[in-house]
Design brief:
By secondary structure, the chain is α+β, with helices and mostly antiparallel strands. It has a domain at 68-284. The protein has six helices and eight strands. It has helices at residues 5-14, 34-86, 88-105, 109-112, 116-136, 196-208; strands spanning 19-20, 26-27, 153-155, 162-165, 168-174, 235-242, 249-259, 262-272. Strands 3-4-5-6-7-8 form a six-stranded mixed sheet. A hairpin with a 6-residue loop joins strand 3 (153-155) and strand 4 (162-165). The longest helix is centred in the first third of the chain and has 53 residues, at 34-86. It is elongated.
């Protein structure tokens, strides 16, 4: 807009000249009145201000979220290093692969009516029970299976295996069967529809990271004070995935959050099995081709009657 603003436009009208509108095209003043031009000028100014505010809000939001993601990533990397250093990553990876292979071998959806949900549930139960035995040691597990991880403790609130290292709490979650061994991170369910403990962890992490109010990508800095502190994340989740036809697994240490824009603030790899890592690699048992139960031959039992004793007085 030229210097002089609306007054300049009015002078141009009196002279019968054209006027400039927001798209920069010179219009014939015979098509608009002074009030029309004033409205266009004011609307253009409001639109420009709104666009500027939106851009500023998006820039601030990007910076706001990035700070929290960096904090989550730092915590996840440090926790993964601790897990590897004390040996938890190795023993946990061995157990997960062992359980996955055993359950995959007996997984029979055609013959037994097994489902991917029952497969995942069985794996979760087995991992919890075997982990508890190997952590406790003693006669509950073979000596060679004892974990002996320094500082490791466990709890099972609501039946969920929860591993504890100094300053760290870890739960496990299996990737949906359909994902295979490469999780589709964008397709994880909302935590509110998942288990209670996962939802609690995600909400707690959002609070610790200072973004518990983060609901959409259109919020502004007015909703988040500049002094919103960023705490240290201590509650994490091992997300593991299994190959659909072999006892090969992968896992990531993640920081789940209850933000509408994302479900994980950070994730870092823990392990990825390769073919040949394990001496025995069970695969799914082929479909049984023999006769069904009602088609098998009937076995006639051999019955020998015990002789009845002769009672006294009987001829």
């Amino acid at each position: 807009m030229n210097p002089g603003g609306l007054a300049h436009l009015n002078l141009h009208l009196e002279a019968g000249a054209g006027f400039w509108v927001p798209d920069g095209i010179c219009r014939d003043t015979s098509l608009a009145s002074t009030a029309d031009i004033r409205f266009i000028f004011q609307q253009n100014r409001r639109d420009t201000q709104a666009q500027s505010n939106t851009q500023r809000s998006h820039l601030w939001l990007h910076q706001h979220v990035n700070k929290r993601i960096e904090a989550a990533e730092t915590a996840a990397y440090a926790a993964a290093e601790l897990m590897t250093e004390v040996g938890l990553t190795r023993v946990l990876g061995d157990l997960v692969s062992e359980v996955w292979g055993a359950n995959l071998e007996r997984y029979e959806p055609e013959e037994r009516g097994d489902t991917t949900k029952s497969l995942g549930f069985q794996c979760s139960e087995n991992i919890r029970e075997l982990a508890v035995r190997r952590i406790q040691g003693g006669d509950l597990a073979a000596p060679e299976d004892h974990w002996n991880v320094p500082g490791l403790q466990f709890t099972t609130p609501r039946g969920v295996l929860t591993l504890h290292l100094p300053g760290l709490e870890i739960v496990l979650m299996k990737v949906p069967y359909a994902h295979g061994r490469s999780p589709i991170w964008e397709h994880f369910p909302n935590w509110e529809t998942s288990s209670q403990i996962r939802d609690d962890i995600a909400k707690d992490n959002a609070r610790v990271l200072g973004g518990s109010k983060l609901q959409s990508d259109t919020q502004s800095e007015l909703e988040f004070p500049e002094d919103t502190p960023i705490g240290i994340v201590r509650r994490m989740m091992v997300v593991w995935a299994g190959e659909p036809d072999a006892s090969l697994t992968s896992a990531w240490l993640t920081v789940p959050v209850s933000w509408s824009t994302m479900t994980f603030a950070a994730k870092t790899p823990l392990w990825r099995d390769e073919a040949g890592d394990s001496p025995s690699m069970p695969v799914r048992t082929p479909k049984y081709d023999g006769p069904s139960f009602d088609q098998q031959p009937t076995v006639e039992p051999q019955i020998t009657m015990k002789p009845r004793p002769v009672a006294e007085g009987e001829a």
